[in-house]
Amino acid sequence: MGWIKRKEEGSTGTDEAAPPEEEARATPADPVQADEGEAQAGAAPLDSDRKGGAQPSIISSGMEISGELRSNGPIHVEGRIEGSLESDEILIGATGEVTGEVQASQLSVHGAFEGDGVCERLTIGPSASYRGSLDCESLELATGGILVGKVQVGST
User: 10-residue block means of pLDDT along the chain (156 residues)?
Assistant: First the structure.
């Protein structure tokens, strides 16, 4: 069924299915559009304004990707990725799983990561697991977070 054509102001008709020629022109309202300054439910706060307006890339729970991902904007992972990630800001959410290589200025792990990571700043959350090699400038490890592997923190 096509989009519903609403009665126009002043008309006496009821809602009816749009004719085929209007259906092709009709576009739905953007479901993720929010009022200015209003936070969107279900999305973690990512600072895209800081990066010149680059939009975040969100890998949702249930989505699986294999390969190489690069982005000018933040990457938020709630699904599963096998491969390499490169961005200024990467967030592996509570349901996120990444296996491979990660390169970022800021990396936050709240789910599971296994592989090689290079970053300026790493945050490992209380229920997170990081297994592999790590080279970073600063590290924040919450109580309960797991870090196993070869770790190099600070300048050498």
Answer: 43 47 42 37 44 82 96 96 97 98 98 97 97 96 96 81
State how far the Cα of 111 lies from the Cα of 93, in Å rounded to an integer. Answer: 5
Q: Number of C-alpha atoms within 13 angstroms, CB side, residue 105?
A: 8
Work out whether strand 129-141 and strand 151-153 pair parallel, antiparallel, or are unpaired: parallel
Of 53, 54, 55, 52, nearest to 32 by C-alpha is: 55
Under 8 Å between Cβ of 115 and 130: no
List of residues 6+ apart from 79 with CB closer than 8 A: 59, 60, 61, 62, 63, 64, 65, 95, 96, 97
Q: In this structure, what are the phi and psi dihedrals at residue 143, rounded to the nearest 5 degrees?
A: -60, 130
How far apart CA 148 and CA 133 sit, in angstroms, is 8
Residue pointed to by tokens 């989505």:
63
Is residue 74 within 8 Å of 91, Cβ to Cβ? yes
